[in-house]
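User: Earlier you gave me the apo prediction for this protein. Now I'd like the version with zinc ion bound, so I can compare the two side by side. Same sequence as before, with the ligand SMILES added.
Assistant: Got it. Here's the input I'm using:
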Amino acid sequence: MTCSPPDLDFARLTGQTEAHLVPGPGGVLVHRQVLEPLQRLHRRAQAAGFELTLASGFRSFERQMSIWQRKLRGELPLLSRTGERLDVDALSPDEQLQALLRWSALPGTSRHHWGTDFDIYDAAAVPAGYHLQLVPEEYTGDGPFAPMTQWLQQAVASDSGEGFFFPYAEDIGGVAPEPWHLSYRPLAQQFLQAFEPAVFQALLQGAGWPLADSIAGRAEEIYRRYICLRPDA
Ligand SMILES: [Zn+2]
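And here is the structure of the complex with zinc ion:
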């Protein structure tokens, strides 16, 4: 690969190395340059009465591929746009791909591959042993994590969020809104910029893709809408 700087090579962009990671809070793997900003944000949250906790950080290419395959085999629920469980066998390959992309990034393109992005919750708002579901109801309205979410949204808007932001705050017709997904922008932006179309093409050249024809047919749209997070022009 010649299209990206040496420290952001293909393996690092696509979740196929852990060389840039360190154990973060709770043992969750994070990019080593995110550790300090994360600790600063945690202290700010603590002062406001929240226990900002990571449910997940880095996720490997293999893990993401395994999620896709289990959904296609029916071992994990494949959900519709609005969250109802779908019958995999009743769907065309294009429809399966559409449903997968709504909730689970194409393996190799997940922001969780970078170590810059996290799923978070407020451990102070729920009893120990609480079963986290990562659904919007937990983060809005009367949900247990709504107060911390609002506090974080205000911190981001007022530039006191230590560089973190919510990349999936809005539904642009691609990835479903994820009010729990937090990203460290200064670093994530570098990964995103390095993730040029040539990187995406190289990723798709790899062997063993499920739904390969459907992915190839929609490659341009996947790149624009699900990686660059750009709505339709
Ligand atoms: Zn996430």
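For your comparison, keep in mind: The mean pLDDT is 93.
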